[in-house]
Amino acid sequence: MHMSIDNPINLQLPDIRFMNKIGEGGMSSVWKAMDLKRNTVVAVKILKREFTENAGDLEQFVAEEQAMEKIDHPGIVKSYEMRCTDGLWYYIMEYVDGYNFGDLLLRKQHLQEVDCLLICESVAAALDYAWNEHGVVHCDIKPDNIMVNSDGVVKLTDLGLCHTFQCLKNGMQEAPDQVLGTPAYISPEQIYGDVEPDCRADIYSLAATLYHLSTGRVLFPGLSTEDMLRAHCNEECQAKDPRTYRPALSEGFCQMLEAMLVKDRDGRIHQWRDVYEMGRYVERGVSFKERTEGGASSLKLGV
């Protein structure tokens, strides 16, 4: 039986009763549904049929599900299983009763620093686990991919572009022949594509996301996609001080973003634990000062 996802409410998928659409992207749509087998509300992500015919697109979709299924952390949306019914590929995952911060930005223009710090610490804790336990790099952190549920728990979703560092290191994957990521938040090394991405790429993207959330503006506003990608890589192109837009932001918060946004990843904060701890210091009103060790720039507590 041929099935279309234009109106999945009429689809007959095993143990699934569709309720309403949650969202839609270029390759897939996501639906709220009742999982009759688990007797719980879930989200069902369905790959659009035209992409099932492309081996690379299907592989990416499957890799996303596998990454989400093996990672068991309250800060990352959990996938339960992948299925294929009559040639239609989909997977069943945790339903988040809440909203993403991209939608919230459209309503509120910007977030308060205290909320941005909560997001920072939550994402840092989740990706510290994903990186250290599974070698996973998300590669597409942005406001749309960070959600908060009705209990106030921040959850990261959409690992569609994720890489597993061990696989890259062992030569099981080749470097991509195109830029993968979202231009407003992508790290310079993802643009260059000449090194294996590690957690420092996600640290840069999280900082770009926090900059947008706290100021209401992306790092390099008003540029074409091509010029925006150049700006991420060009040392002479530095984003404006966040306090240009939001003077109430603390010095410590702005210094933290600056340390996370160093274009050369060797000079950037290099582990999630440092990001998490720096966020906790900023909460307490601490500022930092710069120091140089072995040619690399870093921050330490101010005196």
What report would you give on this structure?
By secondary structure, the chain is an alpha+beta fold. The protein folds into two domains: 8-94, Phosphorylase Kinase, domain 1 (2-Layer Sandwich); 98-301, Transferase(Phosphotransferase), domain 1 (Orthogonal Bundle), CATH 1.10.510.10. The chain is 34% helix and 21% strand. It contains nine helices and twelve strands. The strands form four sheets. Strands 1-2-3-5-4 form a five-stranded antiparallel beta sheet, with helices on one face. Strands 6-8-9 form a three-stranded antiparallel beta sheet. The radius of gyration is 20 Å and the shape is globular. The N and C termini lie far apart (70 Å). 39% of the residues are buried. Mean pLDDT is 86; it is low at 165-179 and 291-298.
Q: Would you spell out the secondary-structure blueprint of this structure?
A:
Elements (H helix, E strand, L loop, with lengths): L15 E9 L3 E8 L4 E8 L7 H16 L8 E7 L2 E7 L3 E3 H8 L4 H22 L1 E2 L8 E4 L4 E3 L6 E2 H5 L18 H5 L6 H17 L9 H9 L17 H10 L11 H12 L4 E6 L2 E6 L2
Antiparallel strand pairs: 1-2, 2-3, 3-5, 4-5, 6-8, 7-10, 8-9, 11-12
Helix pairs in contact: 3-6, 3-9, 6-8, 8-9
Strand arrangement across the biggest beta sheet = 1-2-3-5-4
Helix run count: 9
Shape: globular
Low-pLDDT residue intervals, each spanning 5 or more residues: 165-179, 291-298
Query: Whole-Å distance between the termini?
Result: 70 Å
